[in-house]
Design goal:
Largest sheet: 5 strands, parallel
Number of domains: 1
Strand content: 5-15%
Number of helices: 6
CATH class: Alpha Beta
CATH superfamily: P-loop containing nucleotide triphosphate hydrolases
Helix content: 40-55%
Number of strands: 5
Radius of gyration: 15 Å
Shape: globular
Order of helices and strands: EHEHHEHEHHE
CATH topology: Rossmann fold
Strand order of the largest sheet: 2-3-1-4-5
Distance between the termini: 23 Å
Structural class: alpha/beta
C-alpha cells in the first residue's frame, strides 16, 4: 500500500505521517528531511523554485525505486512529499497504477490561520517535525502554489479537518 499525504504548509502532514507510520508499521518518505540532508546546504540565495523542484524529482526517483522494493517485501510506504499540485499527485498515482500498488489518500485540510500558527510555533520550538525554517515569504508562496484536491481525487480518501 502506498499512502499519499496531501496538505498545504503547516497542515500537519509530517506529524500525521509519523502516526500513520507507527500504526501501519510502514516506511516513511519525508521530503523535508531528504531536502535538508541532501540539498539545502548547497542552495544559494539566487536558486529559486526550479532548483528545488529539480532536486525533489531526483529524490523521488530514488523513492520510487525503494518503494518497489518495499512493496515486494509487503511493507507499506508513506509519502510525506507535499503533493501540492495535481500534476504531482497524478505522477504518484500513475506510478502506483503502473506497478499495481494499492493507494490510500490522506488529505489534511486545515485553515490558513491554524497552519500559519503551527508553522510559527514549529519555527520557534524546532521540535520533532522541524527540518528548516519556513519564512512568511515561503508560507505565502505555498498559499498560491498549493492546488486543493478535486472531488474526484478525494473519492475514498481519509480527510482530516
Amino acid at each position: 500500500m502506498l499512502h499519499l499525504i496531501i496538505g498545504n504548509t503547516g497542515a500537519g502532514k509530517t506529524t500525521y505521517a509519523q502516526q500513520l507510520k507507527a500504526e501501519k508499521k510502514a516506511f516513511l518518505f519525508s521530503i523535508d528531511k531528504w531536502n535538508k540532508t541532501l540539498f539545502l546546504s548547497d542552495k544559494k540565495e539566487e536558486d529559486g523554485v526550479e532548483w528545488v523542484l529539480e532536486r525533489i524529482d531526483r529524490a523521488e526517483e530514488m523513492m520510487m525505486d525503494t518503494i518497489q522494493q518495499l512493496v515486494t517485501m509487503g511493507i507499506d510506504s508513506i509519502l510525506d512529499v507535499g503533493l501540492s499540485k495535481k500534476e504531482h499527485r497524478d505522477k504518484w498515482r500513475n506510478f502506483a497504477q503502473a506497478h499495481n500498488f494499492e493507494t490510500s489518500i490522506h488529505f489534511l485540510n486545515m485553515d490558513q490561520q491554524t497552519r500559519r500558527k503551527r508553522v510559527t510555533q514549529r519555527n520557534q520550538e524546532k521540535g520533532a517535525s522541524y527540518e528548516f525554517e519556513v519564512s512568511d515569504e515561503d508560507f505565502n508562496f505555498m498559499e498560491s502554489w498549493f492546488e486543493t484536491p478535486t472531488e474526484q481525487e478525494l473519492i475514498n480518501a481519509t480527510i482530516i479537518t
